[in-house]
Design brief:
- The structure is a single chain.
- Strands 3, 4, 5, 6, 9, 10, 11, 12, 13 and 14 form a 10-stranded mixed β-sheet that branches. This protein has a two-stranded antiparallel sheet with strand order 1-2.
- The longest helix has 22 residues, at 202-223.
- The chain has 241 residues and is α+β, with helices and mostly antiparallel strands.
- β4 (71-72) and β5 form a beta hairpin.
- The chain folds into 2 domains: 30-100 and 187-204, Alpha-Beta Plaits; 104-184, Pseudouridine synthase.
- The protein has 5 helices and 14 strands.
Length: 241
């Protein structure tokens, strides 16, 4: 590595370091970024760890994306739909997933029954779960459909615990009928058809990297006791437009 014999435990970045095996230089894999609209029933892994015959998010990628070693950034449970980012950029994935970055994830949720004022107040204050408090960063005013006996609302979370929304609403006595992730940070699902995938454009990738850098800097200020530790990202939520 860089002209010297590599030692066990050393780390290298192929974008900057000269790494050779038997005299042949290893090339860095080009970074790639794809946005998917995951349907319910598709699992957010690269292969089915159980039966082996369920569809995965990897199956949604077009042929041109399957040569790269893309992986999903975070999880979306099998019964949920919506936005999944696929990439081979591990540094960016870490920046988006680390709890200290507090990246907004926006979900449109439909539940059984009428979510009354008391349940809504409890949801906004925080719902106690077995692994901690579920406290959404934002809860929209609910819309009740009497014909269906269902309530729809939008939640913004900055956590990523397993089935957190479903468990929180179950605790309030409202079973989730449908759950769609519509946004993660600056990425929005918009009109991407269900089951479709598209590659992010250069401008989108740069905006995503800039967002990740901003969240990293905010996290560093927070850990050092600085002010403005959690600024609102520009152009984040349709709830505020």
């Amino acid at each position: 590595m860089n002209g010297a014999i590599a030692m066990l435990g050393e780390r290298a970045d192929l974008a900057h370091d000269d790494v050779r095996v038997d005299g042949k230089r290893l090339a860095a894999e080009p970074r790639d970024y794809w946005l998917l609209h995951k349907p319910a029933g598709v699992i957010t892994t690269l292969s089915d760890p159980h039966s082996g015959d369920r569809r995965t998010v990897h199956d949604l990628l077009p042929a041109e994306a399957r040569g790269a070693r893309l992986f999903p950034v975070g999880r979306l449970d099998v019964g949920s739909e919506g936005l999944v980012l696929m990439t081979n950029d591990g540094e960016l994935a870490h920046a988006l997933l680390h709890p200290s970055r507090e990246v907004d994830k926006e979900y449109r949720v439909r539940v059984r029954g009428a979510l009354d004022a008391r349940a809504l107040e409890q949801l906004r204050a925080g719902v106690e779960l077995e692994d901690g408090l579920m406290r959404p960063a934002h809860v929209s005013p609910p819309h009740y459909d009497a014909a269906r006996n269902e309530t729809e609302l939008v939640l913004v979370l900055r956590e990523g615990r397993k089935r957190e929304i479903r468990r929180g609403l179950d605790a309030l006595g409202h079973r989730v009928v449908r759950l769609v992730r519509e946004r993660m940070g600056p990425l929005v699902l918009a009109r991407l058809p269900l089951g479709a995938a598209r590659r992010l454009g250069p401008r989108e990738v740069e905006e995503l990297r800039a967002f990740a850098r901003a969240r990293e800097e905010a996290s560093a200020r927070a850990s050092s006791g600085g002010r403005d530790a959690n600024p609102r990202p520009r152009g984040t939520s349709r709830l505020e437009r």
